[in-house]
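Hey all, sorry for the wall of text incoming. These are the two entities for the joint prediction.
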Amino acid sequence: RKEVEQDPGPFNVPEGATVAFNCTYSNSASQSFFWYRQDCRKEPKLLMSVYSSGNEDGRFTAQLNRASQYISLLIRDSKLSDSATYLCVVSNQAGTALIFGKGTTLSVSS
Amino acid sequence: GAGVSQSPSNKVTEKGKDVELRCDPISGHTALYWYRQSLGQGLEFLIYFQGNSAPDKSGLPSDRFSAERTGGSVSTLTIQRTQQEDSAVYLCASSDRGRIQETQYFGPGTRLLVL
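and here's what came out:
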């Protein structure tokens, strides 16, 4: 089983749509969880950390289910500028580095 | 302020040659990470430096790969006797104190192509 698994997509949605991405991770010892965003041929940038209680940042909502080892990201009212690859990221067991999923590609069209 | 910088931005080399990739982290950041991203693959952790502690080299794929960080700032990743499978984007990141909860700020990467 891969350490972090994501549906690669692509997800093609119209502006204004709500879209959800899911991710599973294999190491139950992981303690920190994130969503990063990567634009084409650019470096990854932190979108948001993910907390057990769930957290929201504007149109973005992240959820964590430790029992199921499952992370989600919900984007409401999609904008053209949301088009990117979304990377699910968890910490390694030692807490020294990040383990990245391959990413889910989102394309928002007008 | 200035972000993480990397050089060169692109490098083309012949199989068997050695290459050096440079990373200049955000000033004051004590933690520095190297990752690589191969085509169609996720980012793969290579090595982690935190202050004066011994680096975590657990992600280095072979003994052809090595890295050093001089003076707690600039880091160099060296790949000896390059192979075609080394072709990838090599990304450097830094964070304030190396706590895993912190944001890692990535540089633009070095695109390495081994012919």
